User: What shape does this take?
Amino acid sequence: MKNKALLVPLALLLIASLVACAAPAPAPAPAPAPAPPKPSYSFALAQYQSGATDPLYKVAEQFKANVEAASRGRITIKHFPGSLLGTTDVLMMDVKKGALNITWAPPNPSFDRQIEFTRLPYAAFDWEGAREAYKPGGWGAEMMEEIALRNNCYSLGIQNVGFQVVLSTKEFTPMPGHPSTKPIKSRVSPSKTEEVIGQTFGFTTLSMDFSELHSSLMLGTVDAALGPTYKEARVFKDVIKYMYLYNYANPAGPWVVNLGLWKSLSAEDQEILSTAMAEALAASRGEAAQLEQDAVKEVREAGVEIVELTSEQLRANVDACRDKVWGWAEREVFTKEFVDKMRAEAQTPP
Assistant: This one.
């Protein structure tokens, strides 16, 4: 009995010792740290058009709305239209340097000489052909992306300015080398490519900035103008008598963002900008053909005679341009390989 009495306290001591040596209960795991907030941005976008119906202006505004909606206001776009921040040359250089975030780069040799490939005449004859060239993965888009990258820019997407016509105060026959074209003094934009095109059509050419054109036509400094699009022809309806639908080119330029800025963005934010621009450009292309029809109607109602080229005249101009202008470009601007690729990709004349 005595031994049993001793066993009870010993058992109690043993239990107490085991409890004292047992590991403490684990502390509850700390709550995960909240994810860091995504960075906010305010980007400056500038382009030279200011009219609310202008395709460049409309794409800029749609892009702004798309970005701000997709990012829920985390990324905002400040749009400076109408050359408020400088001429197109200044805007392009500012994006290259990083002083400006986003702009539209026209096919101007001051950005890169080879960007003028979009001016080569008669590569496309309708909006479907133009879309095929400059859609993502198209041969024109790939060339444009390479040009943007070597100029410290990233191409968000490519916008065509519209098919180009010839406006005139005098009547002529739209055949290359026809005796009626030589006396016509025609303005061309400050571009060697445009100069060669004008001379191939048979005109006497004079390089001139767009801003000088209206007064020059009114005063008779020039008789005609290469370069205006259907939309731009409206501006001159009070000083011209003829609008010749050569439809010889549909120049395009990229919407560019500074490359350093682009690389600093997350993949998510890059996707927001790319998608926003793709959607804005798709909407603009859908309106393009109707805008041209509206422009023709407005110019005709102002008393301007609309001259459509006959099949024979079109074919003659196509053959002359693909021979002389493309041949000049192959020797002076591009490589034979590139021009051969354009010949393979170019649309067949209707």
